[in-house]
Amino acid sequence: MPEGPEIRRAADNVERALINRTVEDVYFAFPHLEDYEDLLKGAIVIRVDTKGKAMLIRFDNGYTIYSHNQLYGKWYIRNLYHYPKTNRQLRLALHNEKKSALLYSASDIEVLRDGEVPSHPFISKVGPDLLSEEVSVNELAERMKDKRFRKRKWSILLLDQGFIAGIGNYLRSEIMFVARTHPSLRPVDCTEDQLDKAAHAVMNLVQQSYETGGITNDPDLAQKMKDQGVNRSHYRHWVFNRGGASCFICGSEIEKTVAASRRLYYCPVCQRIE
User: pTM above 0.85?
Assistant: First the structure.
């Protein structure tokens, strides 16, 4: 499943294609949404927001298209009416005088009045989106001490979209590694300094992943390995998907385990419990 940085990058592409342009044609694959086609024709896209793994396309007529890619959804931006060759099913199409924004395979699509967006079942429960909302490191550290979150293991908490929006499986392992936090620990077990490191790790890695297209390893090290011809899968992350390989910091063997029914990777030395 794409994580927050991937959805924000997709939103950027959709926004570049549609913003400040009049929608000339609209297509919804689902019958219950067909009545909205005429409503949105002639409207102007004013911005594209994200809330974790959800995308919100805002129109000047007071309506918003909500979509969630789930496992298989994918956006394509094409010149007007130039559809990609794919076996995926087209679910939503927005066309202006130059571009077509096409959403394939996703099934979670709704049209909402702007005032209905905050109370949407997903939006109302999800935590802050670090790529679309202003959140400080201090605010994030304080959130970690909230009674809703402080006694939950990091390995579980970081996947909770109600804690922070958009963090998924690869970011979970990477954040804990950069913060030097063992997966079995909880925020309540951590010192103020450790919480500060965790908050910085979350902020920095989400932003870095967004800027680099998913690279969470040290950028200089990643570039050096790339220049040496190393496969991207071997230099992309610090620990994720590197079970049995050597830690880039200490040389210890990266361990793989399972938490919340999903694979998790960590360095037993760099992330040891002190």
Answer: yes
